[in-house]
Automatic annotation (TrEMBL):
Membrane spanning stretches: 23-49, 61-83, 95-114, 120-140, 161-184, 196-215, 249-270, 290-308, 320-338, 344-363, 384-405, 411-432
Main location: membrane
Entry's localization field: Cell membrane
Name of the protein in question: MFS family permease
Domain Major facilitator superfamily (MFS) profile: 23-437
Length: 459
């Protein structure tokens, strides 16, 4: 693996250790709040939304529709990515991060106030889906900005570690969401949870958004964007430039993420929570232990994500990813045999094993994506690749898994589906050249424009 020359002025702008710590804190806090909001919905979809908002459809179809509403938001992530990418490449990373945070928080709090189907009829699921769409738009724009703030402020030799800071916000969001739901399940058990207990985690978002807003407003703009703006070199049509020159790269990058995302949404999409706690299902665990098992697995996911980001600075992004996908495949093959063991211990072991692979294929993603695209269109490139990857991967993974089990009566088909997505992610990784340490500043646009896909010389 080669170490390429560091950035010039942009690197100097990133050299203040105090500002770096502030950026790391801002990206972790902001992405944690964003994904707490996003995962609270997915967990509630698996636990209560089928009964409260899709009641006339019956238990099986209601659950499928609830998971479908989780996936609908992914269809609108590209819209958020397009808008945020355009604004981020023209007006800066920080303003987009603040806007997406507020949009997500408002949508989440309003879900906590929604009347149910029993109270207002069909308007309830319609309003629920509309608010979920707003969450999707926000999530589509959030990730790219957080990634670039972290990676463009980072020293070259520690870009993977710094880039892992927005990545750990995802398992932290899951940890926080599952933990709060677990607490509310204990505070308001049984019918009380269905009546009001599930609403509290959504309303808590108001407090978290205030904290996230304050932290994100305190950081300086990305030094790479500052240098571009000072030169008056912002791209007039970044989206057009991206698709005209880099469409194959967008597709390959999206497939890398899809291989991780489909598997990750077994927990973040609420599927395992529903499957393991269904009284009529083969596992039949109580809701509380299931939520605590997911919470514990989120801790493992967090640690392995941070570890993978740091290791990728030494091994390279491509090698770290390849190892991660192999470990993830092993976790996929072991997941349902362990979950179907029907005990808290076997469920916990299956989720922990899976979380190690998920972290290894998620920690290096921020640095990998930042190093794939030229500075002038980088926000658009990373945001749109991420959004497309989430559609191909996690968007309907819980609904697909539910449909496969209903059709076949076994989880073997789900295992095959997840294994197939993992292999696709590995294959996409292996067609990319390793660009670990490539300069990110605008002085090196020509170097950055060389295609990292084997067999393509230039974009």
């Amino acid at each position: 693996m080669s170490r390429l020359a560091p950035d010039g002025p942009a690197a100097a702008g990133a050299s203040d250790p105090r500002e770096r710590r502030r950026v790391v804190l801002a990206t972790i806090v902001g992405t944690t709040v964003e994904w707490y909001d996003f995962f609270i919905y997915a967990s509630a979809a698996g636990l209560v939304f089928g009964q409260l908002f899709f009641e006339p459809a019956g238990s099986s179809l209601g659950t499928l529709l609830a998971f479908g509403s989780v996936g609908v938001s992914f269809l609108f992530r590209p819209l958020g990515a397009f808008v945020a990418g355009h604004l981020g490449d023209k007006y800066g990373r920080r303003v987009v991060l603040v806007l997406t945070l507020v949009l997500m928080g408002v949508a989440t709090a309003l879900i906590g106030l929604l009347p149910t189907y029993a109270q207002i009829g069909v308007a309830a699921p319609v309003l629920l889906v509309l608010l979920r769409i707003l969450q999707g738009i926000s999530a589509g724009g959030e990730w790219g900005g957080a990634v670039l703030m972290a990676c463009e402020h980072a020293p070259v030799a520690r870009r993977g570690l710094f880039g892992a800071s927005p990545q750990v916000g995802v398992p932290l969001g899951l940890l926080l969401a599952s933990g709060v739901l677990g607490i509310m399940n204990a505070v308001a058990p049984g019918d009380a949870f269905l009546t009001w207990g599930w609403r509290v985690p959504f309303l808590l978002s108001v407090v978290l958004i205030g904290i996230g807003y304050w932290v994100r407003r305190s950081v300086e703009e990305s030094p790479v964007y500052v240098e571009i703006a000072q030169r008056a070199e912002t791209t007039r049509q970044p989206l057009l430039q991206l698709f005209r020159k880099h469409t194959p790269l967008v597709i390959v990058a999206a497939l890398v993420f899809a291989g991780n995302n489909a598997v990750g949404y077994m927990t973040t999409g609420g599927y395992i929570q529903r499957y393991a706690s269904d009284p009529a299902g083969p596992v039949g665990l109580d809701r509380g232990p299931v939520l605590w098992a997911v919470t514990a697995s989120a801790v493992v996911w967090l640690v392995s994500t941070w570890f993978a980001g740091a290791v990728s600075d030494r091994l390279g992004r491509r090698t770290t990813y390849a190892i991660g996908f192999v470990v993830q495949l092993a976790g996929v093959l072991a997941l349902f045999p362990l979950v179907n063991g029907g005990t808290f211990g076997s469920l916990l072991l299956g989720l922990i094993f899976l979380s190690v692979g998920l972290g290894l294929t998620y920690g290096p993603q921020a640095a990998l994506y930042a190093e794939l695209f030229p500075a002038s269109i980088r926000f658009s490139g990373v945001s749109i690749s991420y959004a497309i990857g989430s559609i191909l991967g996690g968007a309907f993974a819980p609904a697909i898994a539910t449909a496969l089990v209903q059709a076949t009566g076994t989880t073997a088909a789900v295992t095959m589906y997840l294994a197939g997505m993992t292999v696709i992610g590995l294959a996409a990784t292996l067609v990319l050249r390793d660009r670990t340490g490539i300069p990110l500043g605008p002085d090196h646009e020509e170097l950055q424009a060389a295609s990292p896909i084997y067999g393509l010389a230039r974009a």
